[in-house]
Amino acid sequence: MSTQTQELEAKTPAALPSAERTNTRRIFSPRADVYETPEEIVVVAELPGVSEESLDITLENRELTIRGTVATAVPTNYRLIYNEYGEGDYERRFVLADSIDRNGIVANLKNGVLQLRLPKVKEALARKISVKAE
């Protein structure tokens, strides 16, 4: 695992600053996969039920926060008597390494899957150094 990948740390809910929530809905930490290429880091997160309008991605200093709200679907003329599916919203935070170009981040949401492309700054890109023999 490279240094850039190790520096991209996910904060667990226990590590988040404690604050009073005014929302009584459950908050889920979406599962995410993190991939690295020589040019960028790609984060893929599952956010089922989240639409583009209800997705909020913010970057403050080095902290990237993903928040998604799910609209509750209540069928008319029915009364819930048993529930296995847990409804709630999503929140996940990542601390970005200094090697990430914060102005080049691109987000794409398709079928409940979010893909974040985090390009590396030019100085952080791997390069081949040629050797000249004398």
Overview of the structural elements:
The structure is a single chain. The chain is mostly beta strands. It has one domain: Immunoglobulin-like (Sandwich). It contains one helix and nine strands. It has one helix at residues 3-7; strands spanning 9-11, 26-28, 32-36, 40-46, 50-60, 63-70, 88-95, 106-110, 113-119. Strands 1, 2, 5, 6 and 7 form a five-stranded mixed beta sheet that branches. Strands 3-4-9-8 form a four-stranded antiparallel beta sheet, with no helix packed on it.
Task: Summarize the topology.
Blueprint: H1 3-7, E1 9-11, E2 26-28, E3 32-36, E4 40-46, E5 50-60, E6 63-70, E7 88-95, E8 106-110, E9 113-119
Parallel strand pairs: 2-7
Antiparallel strand pairs: 1-7, 3-4, 4-9, 5-6, 6-7, 8-9
Number of helices: 1
| Cα Rg | 19 Å
- Main beta sheet strand tally, sense and closure: 5 strands, mixed
Structural class: mainly beta
Query: What characteristic shape results from the CA principal axes?
Result: elongated
CATH architecture: Sandwich
List how many beta strands DSSP finds: 9
Strand content: 35-45%
The count of domains is 1
The poorly predicted ranges are: 9-16
CATH fold name: Immunoglobulin-like
* Topology pattern, helix = H, strand = E: HEEEEEEEEE
Quaternary state of this entry equals: single chain
CATH class: Mainly Beta
Percent helix range: under 10%
Distance linking N and C termini: 36 Å
